[in-house]
């Protein structure tokens, strides 16, 4: 069993002073600073948590909505019934392009700034939604869903920062 002097030491100690209590708030993130300053989560932390939760909920909701919408589309796209491949590509293109856009957005945010990336993501959301609304073929629907995926990947990486 450990003696009392080591029980209350932090798991990761500051290299220069041996404890985390002397660490300046300037070297921490805003969220860490808020928790360290008040000792409990602040409104900023709660807002950040709610925003992240709502973002995940909406991404899942979008996938669920398109899956159920595909049942009612019938032959409206391409004048034939949708194949399993068509349905799979329409549903998964958003996730695929979000996965692709996320790391690229990090690099672009460093070069262009977060505000520009958020504006670009907003434009992609609108373009993707309009493209899906006017789509008359499977490939046009996939393109619209892919644009939304790029927006989701970009926004989900940059907005919480």
Describe this structure as you would to a colleague.
There is one protein chain. The chain has 161 residues and is mainly alpha-helical. It is built from 6 helices and no strands. Helix 4 (84-112) runs antiparallel to helix 5. It is elongated and about 60 Å long. The two termini are 41 Å apart. The relative contact order is 0.11. Mean pLDDT is 78; it is low at 14-27.
Question: Which features characterize this protein?
Answer:
161 residues; mainly alpha; single chain
List the SSEs and their pairings.
Layout: H1 4-7, H2 30-38, H3 43-73, H4 84-112, H5 114-134, H6 138-158
CA-atom Rg in angstroms: 23 Å
Low-confidence stretches: 14-27
- Helix share bin: over 70%
Helix/strand-derived category reads mainly alpha
Quote the beta fraction.
under 5%
So how many helices?
6
Gross morphology is elongated
Biggest sheet: strands, sense, closure? Answer: none
Give average pLDDT, whole number: 78
